[in-house]
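Q: Now give one record:
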Amino acid sequence: SGGDPKVIPQLTFQQFQKFHQDYYHPANSRIFFYGDDDPNTRLELLDQYLSQFKQPTSPVNSAITFQKKLDKPWKLIEYFPVAQDAPKKTCCYCELVVERFTPYYEEGIGF
């Protein structure tokens, strides 16, 4: 389904279950820590949790690929209520362009 809400209801239970098993697994995650606690304690806690999972038989391709840059800006306006019985007057704005970058974890991690 690719996450398309219109297509998700068409999935069989087996397809849904397979997707969840493939993509919602610690092997398909990136884990970040923040704080000044002991890094060894963090790794021990992480090992206690992750050691409960079996390694998948084959890796999942969950790479996030770059989209083609748009030729021109576009706008989508959706109004929504802030409460169930409120009028649809609320609007949220989000404007951004994300450029390519090299994540720090590909260059090495420093403390």
Notes: The first helix runs from residue 13 to 23.
